[in-house]
Amino acid sequence: MVVNAVVARKGRRFALLMAAHDSEYVLKKYGGYLNVFVAAFGDASAGETWDLYRAVDGELPGEGDLDRYDGFVISGSPNDAYADDEWILRLCELVRDVHARRKRVLGVCFGHQVICRALGGRVARASSGWDIGIREVAMAGVQLPGQCRFLDALRELPPSANITKIHQDEVWEVLASSDKTGVEMFRVGEHMLGIQGHPEYTNDILLNLVNRLLGAGSITLSFAEAVKRQLENTGPDREFCLKLCKSFLKADERSI
User: Where is the Glutamine amidotransferase domain positioned along the sequence (predicted)?
Assistant: First the structure.
């Protein structure tokens, strides 16, 4: 069931599969995570339509609706991608279905992990614990643009980029890596892309999440203060990260 949509007159259609509930903060400031993702990855001038499915509540597009979409985005989540909750298993099944149809799927954090699990990879709790803040990730190899034609719009990749991180699980078994997380990014052909970080997050959303984790006792005060100090001096390369994601989602299929 479609529970919300940013409606356009014409153009491409995308589905956001939300694996988390809207926080009080995001609802109050942004009107919900749908608006955060559309602001990050959408293009109002292109007449796009973005539909929201609350996957965490068991809402997913039906099999007959999948071909209506040009692409899917799977969000982050406080849940474990390797858990056997019914909605997670159903989401994995959907990933396998759209993979068979060669539909574009962008997975962010939890979404990155779910794509990996659904296609036979291994996801587990990170041995190094929480990774929160701005992390420099190394891009994998100068030959990458020739192998990933959806990156042609970027012309060339930087050797590294900063991205916003907040997770304690990770893909184990690559497009990019960091000293904290072994698999920061991966692709499957030209139609599936997983990113461990949160290119859609603004610093205020990250800070709100840090405060919520601190309040819940999930992280220590010293850990939270270290993240806040880092954010005062370092920011993500958000423009590059968003362009990477949008280039993937909007690539012209005729050139692939």
Answer: 66-202
